[in-house]
Write a structure and sequence with these properties.
Blueprint lengths: L1 E2 L4 H12 L3 E6 L2 H13 L3 E6 L5 H15 L4 E4 L15 H28 L4 E6 L11 H21 L4 E8 L11 H10 L8 H12 L10 E4 L3 H4 L2 H4 L1
Parallel strand pairs: 1-2, 1-4, 2-3, 4-5, 5-6, 6-7
Helix pairs in contact: 1-7, 3-4, 4-5
Bound molecules: nicotinamide-adenine-dinucleotide.
Length: about 250
């Protein structure tokens, strides 16, 4: 099951997992987008089902997980990509509501999905795997405090759950992307071009760059990897956030 699978990094992850033979539940608040992706997978001979899901709503998440299990008989991989930042004022002028919304979407939303999926992940015959999309914003000072704090929270959540549920056969890993060309950058072509020049690898990332890491961490190739944060960041953490902020 991939949350946020209707667009961007989630959609690329769905396509990649399906191409490797996974049966995928595409869970998204944008049901129409999820349906398009699922249909594309089925047309290519794969197995996919779309389900409407708002990760901010516990019962919606539980219904989506139940649907995935009904459809495919089990759930062994959960990929959490639903999330996002949005625009808000400077820290000093940002009120509680923005904080609550961004923490709810980016941190508690992931908690809800993991909690609902956990019984199935523990029962998965080959072990369960959770791959969550964090951000380099959770690892260094790129600004956007509410979003960054939520993404940083995902790191310690991932480590704690890795320690707690490893003995029960469930792995938890975090992928931390740098700037990825998705629709969230659609109206910021100039910023994207400027950012591309700052990345050691000379470009911003594509959704497929992240999907490759997701597929690896979800797979048996990563059977002895849990609790890690894997930056997929074109080297930006190596040069440091000052380069981006200046
Ligand atoms: N694009 C980047 O530069 C970048 C960088 C680092 C991390 N990320 C993270 O990657 C993830 C995906 O972002 P993206 O750039 O692909 O954005 P996107 O907008 O293209 O995709 C996000 C998907 O999540 C869905 N979604 C939004 N709110 C939801 C909710 N409440 N419940 C269920 N689904 C919901 C959207 O409908 C959409 O399909 C996010 O967690 C984001 O924070 C993105």
């Amino acid at each position: 099951m991939v949350t946020g699978g209707g667009h961007g990094i989630g959609r690329a992850s769905v396509r990649r997992l399906a191409s490797e033979g996974a049966s995928v539940t595409v869970a998204d608040i944008d049901l129409a987008a999820a349906q398009l992706v699922a249909e594309e997978i089925r047309k290519a001979g794969g197995a996919a089902v779309a389900v409407g899901c708002d990760v901010r709503d516990r019962s919606s998440v539980e219904t989506a997980v139940a649907r995935a299990v009904d459809e495919f008989g089990r759930l062994d991989v959960l990929v959490n990509t639903a999330g996002g930042g949005g625009r808000h004022p400077e820290f000093a002028d940002t009120g509680d509501e923005v904080w609550e919304d961004l923490i709810d979407l980016n941190l508690v939303g992931v908690v809800r999905c993991i909690r609902a999926a956990l019984p199935h992940l523990r029962a998965a015959p080959g072990g369960g795997s959770v791959v969550t999309i964090g951000s380099v914003n959770g690892m260094a000072t790129f600004g956007g405090e509410p979003y960054s704090a939520a993404k940083s929270g995902l790191q310690i959540l991932t480590a704690n759950l890795a320690a707690k549920y490893g003995p029960q056969g469930v792995r938890f890993n975090l992928v931390a992307p740098g700037t990825i060309r998705t629709r969230v950058w659609d109206d910021q072509a100039d910023s994207l071009a400027r950012l591309a020049r700052l990345y050691p690898l000379g470009r911003v990332g594509e959704p497929d760059d992240v999907a490759a890491a997701v597929a690896f961490l979800a797979s048996e190739d990563a059977a002895w990897i849990t609790g890690v944060v894997l930056p997929v960041d074109g080297g930006i953490l190596s040069v440091g956030p000052a380069r981006i902020q200046s």
